Amino acid sequence: MPETLVIIPTYNERENVRSIVDRVLGADSRIHVLVVDDNSPDGTGDMADEMAAADERVSVLHRAGKLGLGTAYLEGFAIAAERGYTYVFEFDADGSHPPERLPEMIDALDAGAGLVIGTRWMPGGRTENWPLQRQILSRGASIYARVLLQSKIRDITAGYRGYRVALLQGFDLTRIKSAGYCFQIEMAWLFERSGIRVSEVPITFVERQEGASKMSSDIIVEAVWRVFAWGLGYRLGAFSRRAAR
Q1: What Pfam families would the database entry show (predicted)?
Q2: Which of 191, 184, 193, 175 is closest to 231 using CA atoms?
């Protein structure tokens, strides 16, 4: 069995799902794809079923409704463990993540990383077709999280990443409560503060050409308050530990 499972959550991605799955499969023969569809009204799930019927490297998980990005990945992680994959990747369906970087990211895991992140905010990384407001929001979110969480990860909000499945199994992921893109911050910080090696690979992040972004004010608000609470709790815990010595 190929060692790597790439999870692609979808909701109304009919315009993108076929091309992105083909590109992911074409990037490396070691890769299988799991499409996690949240009962898309536009028929994305049906299209994914057609691809799965035609290619044994593709499988589909149908969910009852729009249940959130975090839960889609957590269910995908469980499937990766059940099926015996070594690595599992998160991947956007909208074409913003370059599949061509997957081999290098797999190599980083082969070299000993527990988590590898496709990073926009490092030498060699960049965004394409982003308005200035979007760049400020994304960079600001990364800086905000890094400062409050005392993180060294340069793109802690990034959604293009791969994990060692065995390490994921070592955590109680039922405690992960983030539903939106804050999930990415929570998972990366979990690995980093556990002392697990995190590698970053520069990528070009391309703005979607088809369909609508799933970003919303609720997602942004969730990230702001959760990161603040985590940072405050981390500092208070560190202060208490120092005081007890």
Answers
A1: Glycos_transf_2
A2: 193
CA–chain centroid gap for 232, Å, is 25
- State how far the Cα of 191 lies from the Cα of 216, in Å rounded to an integer: 26
Domain of residue 190 covers: 4-236
What value, to the nearest 5°, has the Cα angle with vertex 16 and ends 200 and 119?
Answer: 10
Measured in whole angstroms, how far is the alpha carbon of residue 233 from the centre of its chain? 24
- Could you give the angle at the alpha carbon of 214 between the alpha carbons of 211 and 216, nearest 5°? 135
245 within a domain of the structure (yes/no): no
Q: How far apart are CA 213 and CA 207, in angstroms?
A: 9
What phi and psi values does residue 96 have, to the nearest 5 degrees? Answer: -75, -25
**Rounded CA separation 8/33 (Å):** 7
CATH number at residue 125: 3.90.550.10
Cβ atoms within 10 Å of 98's Cβ, excluding its own = 16
Q: What percent of the chain has pLDDT over 70?
A: 90
For the segment 2-40, what is each residue's pLDDT rounded down to a tens digit? 699 999 999 999 999 999 999 999 999 999 999 999 999
Whether 126 maps to a domain, the answer reads: yes
| Residue 226 vs residue 109, higher pLDDT | 109
Q: What is the rounded distance in angstroms from the CA atom of residue 70 to the CA atom of residue 179?
A: 5
Q: Between the CA of residue 84 and those of 4, 22, 88, 164, 166, what are the distances in Å?
A: 9, 23, 10, 11, 10
Q: Which of 119, 61, 88, 121 is nearest to 5 (CA)?
A: 88
Question: Per the structure, how many domains does the chain have?
Answer: 1
pLDDT in tens, 214-245: 555 676 787 787 888 888 877 666 534 444 44
